[in-house]
Amino acid sequence: MPLCSLTTARNSAARMDRTILLKGSFLHRRTFGWQDLIAVLIVVAAVILFGTGMHQMLVPLVPKHPQQISLSPTALPRYTLLTVLRMLAAMVASLIFTFTYATLAAKSRAPRWC
Hints:
Elements lengths: L2 H21 L10 H25 L17 H32 L7
């Protein structure tokens, strides 16, 4: 293939790329919509939440009403039962989320990558 035809092919490919970019959304003026307002509000809320969290991390932790923890052997079974119930509640919540999310993902019409 002669050098001239290679240069012409490159130029036409570059021209096609330019026309695709010109036909794309780069030149399209988009107005500020309600989706943009929601996105801005979410970003502002995240920044405020982060700033509040950082401010609270800098002050010393002083509980207003400290809980009294009994170290007697008779209180240990109650603490054990409460811990096991918290773990079971977390596992049930995790399973409910897992099966709900998996069902929605399986029924989704989104493109699958595998």
